[in-house]
Write a structure and sequence with these properties.
With about 100 residues, the protein is mostly helical. The chain is about 70% helix and about 0% strand.
């Protein structure tokens, strides 16, 4: 496995980890724009460039994010979270994913 891709995978898996990973916390309904910065930084650090092959695990962690985040919006709103800020974050995440994986 490419060492750089391995680092990206570990960072993304950390975002899913309990108890402090951002994606874990939104699954619980807790949304913090400040905590979301870690996810944005992690995604922003991924520079696939001209790599011909991305590790399957990296792709699975990245492409699933917007779907997962859309499913969690109800939980965030039910917990009193800021829906506008959450939507803005979801759009930022989607933009970063387009930079990483490209668009059809």
């Amino acid at each position: 496995m490419d060492q750089q891709q391995h680092q990206w995978i570990l960072a993304l898996e950390g975002e899913w980890s309990e108890p402090h990973g951002f994606l874990y916390t939104i699954r619980q309904g807790t949304f913090s724009a400040a905590q979301a910065e870690s996810l944005l930084k992690t995604l922003g650090d991924i520079k696939a460039g001209d790599k011909q092959v991305l590790e399957r695990r990296l792709v699975s962690l990245v492409w699933y994010l917007p779907i997962f985040m859309s499913w969690q919006k109800v939980r965030v709103l039910e917990a009193g979270g800021d829906g506008t800020a959450y939507d803005r974050l979801t759009n930022q995440v989607l933009g970063l994913i387009q930079e990483i994986l490209g668009v059809p």
